[in-house]
Specification:
There is one protein chain. Helix 1 runs antiparallel to helix 3 and helix 4 runs parallel beside helix 6. The protein is mainly α. The protein contains seven helices and no strands.
């Protein structure tokens, strides 16, 4: 796979990920994102572009395609987790989380981009070290968000009905 093909895969994944993350919840869960006109898809795509554009810019610094996996996994895992668990029908302010999910995922993608740079530097001679750097970057991105307390979306919505703000159960 060339770097241009990998960049295309990042764009396609970034556009489709919010919808794919909702499929395990069933048809009613998925249809929450299709409730509305075409402008809602444009809104969702525009905010999610924050994350995948950061990943695309990171690829400009890499020499190897394998280094792209670190920021992609870091950013897209937060994006998938957020879109897969936010219940838009739970309250009138739940849609605000559609703005915040990509912002938090962008932070994780930035941490992953730094980890990708380290992995790119390590890849020629030390494949296991590059893998370790990638895993550490993923853990650092999630810990960074958890330590800030921002892993909780600032709305009252959660698929599993946790009390209080969404994902409060993760912080305790």
């Amino acid at each position: 796979m060339t770097m241009n093909e990998a960049r295309l895969a990042v764009v396609v994944t970034g556009v489709l990920l919010p919808y794919l993350a909702r499929i395990p919840g069933g048809q009613a869960w998925l249809m929450q994102y299709f409730h509305g006109d075409g402008g809602s898809h444009l809104f969702l795509g525009a905010f999610n572009a924050i994350t995948w554009v950061i990943i695309l810019f990171a690829t400009l610094l890499y020499r190897r395609v394998e280094s792209l996996l670190v920021p992609a996994i870091c950013g897209f895992s937060v994006l998938a987790f957020g879109h897969g668990t936010v219940d838009l029908m739970s309250s009138s302010t739940a849609a605000i989380s559609l703005i915040w999910i990509p912002v938090f995922a962008a932070e994780a993608a930035l941490v992953g981009a730094l980890g990708g740079l380290l992995a790119d530097w390590c890849l020629p001679k030390h494949r296991w070290l590059a893998l370790a750097v990638g895993v550490c970057a993923l853990l650092a991105a999630w810990y960074f968000l958890w330590a800030q307390g921002t892993i909780r979306w600032p709305v009252y919505s959660h698929r599993y009905g946790a009390p209080g703000p969404a994902w409060e159960w993760m912080v305790k």
